[in-house]
Amino acid sequence: MGAPPPLSERFVKLGVDRPRIAFSEVMTFDVNGEAVHIVHQKPGYSDADALVHFHVAKLVYWGEVFPGDGYPAIDTAQGGTLDGLLKMLDGWTDPGFHVVPARGEVTNGTSVKAFRDMIVAVRDRVKRSIDAGHTESQVIAEHPTADFDEKWGHGRVPADAFVHEMYAAIKTEK
Fold first, then answer.
1. Which of 5, 12, 72, 99 is 20 to 30 Å from 167 at the Cα level?
2. What is the pTM of this model?
């Protein structure tokens, strides 16, 4: 991993240092009566995904697995997998869960379900095109995200980039 970059001048002036905490699979602690678990996940967005679960508050956070403002990234170069991304979202679709996205407003499990269903629909469309022998350029030109772009097409991952990542993930997992 190498040495971390130097702290910003502002942090040095404040006397702030980096936390000295690391974990491999699970870290658990209590804060003000709240049980908090941080659990390393199987690769989804990348191979460094973790779930933060506040049990009493029924609140979860995944970082880029649930960006909140658009399509997800699947960073296959960093070990990310489409299957892992979907599995990570599976157990958190209950409307009673509060979900903190990487960007945007706190939502709930209903939004996670809609997000997961969108990914599955696009995956199935891309997979059908791949199975029909279409090239990546042809699949992107078919615009399999068209009916989702109004809701999900405004984040850091443009629709065509999402289809490219989806195509790469499906080809890699075959």
1. 99
2. 0.81
